[in-house]
Amino acid sequence: MTASLLRTALALLSLGLCGVLEATISCRNEEGDAVDWFTFYKLPKRQDQESRKTGLEYLYLDSTTRSWRRSKQLMNTTKSALGRTLEQLYKAYASKNNTAYLMYNDGVPKSVNYSRKYGHTKGLLLWNKVQGFWLIHSIPQFPPIPEEGYGYPPSGRRNGQIGICITFKYNQYEAIDIFVAWMAQHLKTHLLTETWQRKRQQLPSNCSLPYHVYNIKAIKISGHSYFSSHQDHAKWCVSQKRTKNRWTCIGDLNRSPYQALRSGGFICTQNQHIYQAFQGLVLYYENCN
User: How far apart are CA 217 and CA 274, in angstroms?
Assistant: First the structure.
């Protein structure tokens, strides 16, 4: 199955309800423990007075931490949350056991070719007859193919990146119904959106429909530390504070006129810990003209 077969989608989920079993496939934290879900925000590589960043540091939040914290590990190590989680794929592949997986990315690992005809989609599913996980992210050329083991591509270092991993019971896979929708109108909420603001490829904030969409312009890390949307390859949105329906969506599609005809996906949740964590990242956003 290729990324071009995936349609523009929302997956509406209630996180933290499934429970996990230590001995089965699941999302995993930096200690290797099973978690219901986690989300990460890989920080952009910055040259500032504070320090020289590696482009491999990330913020981390899961079903047990409740708020953002700095990662103990770097993104390219097997002890990172992604490394621990994907280790299950590489072990399953090596042992040839009863495990299925699906990897999709419009930027194929190690490929120098890039086509705008296909979906702007990036993700991985791994499962057996007990349970599995779904990882959706914004990192090009990631993850490495199973034969090569875990690694993090240089193409994912410079800009901010994002992802979310969710653990599912086997019988829940059929319940993930992917469908076409305009996000703000379907979710019935004003959205603050953070997607890659490339020069001449961005769309302005839009207030023409009942539910508005505003571009986030700067992301706050902590205190006076922040970075611009121009440094951020992440794709996410969060309901405006004053709205009744409080949603957070994490995915792989930019708000760009060049991507209007391309496929992409978002996982959306009303989990309040995730909502509060992402609301806290918004430094300021662009109002409508």
Answer: 20
